[in-house]
Amino acid sequence: MSLFELLQQVLVDSGLGWLALDERQLVFMLATPVFISVFAWEYLKIRHNPELVEGREALRNFALGAGYQTTELLFAGLIAFPVYAFAYHHRLVDIPLNPFTAALLWLLTDFCFYWMHRSSHRVRWLWAAHVTHHSSERMNFSTAMRQNATNIFNGGWLFYVPLALIGFNPVWIGVCYALSLVYQFFIHTTLVGRLHPAIEFIFNTPNHHRVHHARNPDYVDTNYGGVFIVFDRLFGTFTCERAGVPIEYGITRPPQHNNRLWMHWLHEYRDLARDMRQPGPLRQRLRHLWRPPEWERGDD
Known about the structure:
Layout: H1 3-14, H2 23-46, H3 55-89, H4 99-122, H5 124-134, H6 141-144, H7 151-154, H8 161-166, H9 170-185, H10 197-202, H11 206-212, H12 230-235, H13 261-277, H14 282-290
Helix pairs in contact: 1-3, 2-9, 4-5, 4-9, 5-13, 13-14
């Protein structure tokens, strides 16, 4: 079967026809006016506090998000979709779409997101793209849009391919992923405090996600969940905000660069390449790719 036939099979089985080819970007396109409106409302609430929002940075964050969406639009169909189509063609079972399987896919997509997100903090190659999202020292809705245009190239999407191999249609995997990101936009704010304990126990909330964006030693590398926080509780990466430890937003090694957009996307790749160029055996040099961001040669 040719690549074109594999892609066509995925689209036909999705029930959406060729509209499904870029369903993720369709979701984002429909959500973007809502994102802008919600941020405008938030900005009016906090504009007098420069520790919470700064107009030029907010505009830059939306520009970074536009760059991310552009590369996804141009390259996801060329790079990721054929891999998903191949996996789906060799699927283990046929899974029809119904309320039960849709709920199951929603849960499994978030499970994959947890491990992708956790790996994006603990594997430097993946961190090189994800660091852009964490490098702001402010937390507001525009921070959610602060994304890296190289995401499609660094392979984080591979974490979801097993779902296609099991038998879930890649189109619906993409829909679940996109809706998960829409949900996550709304947890990037300081205006919402703690919610009901039952909600805080099951779902990722603004309170949990503020902790995730902290650079305090007590908070770093915790609360990786997307929609749900239960996976953090299950795998030992959950922590809650402590009264005596106020959150400091940002990353532990702030980049030294100007505010050109491309440097926000590429500064960690530059630092990674610098570390790999240091003299030593090839295997030691390559270890920088998969070891944690803070790892240095001689640490083990």
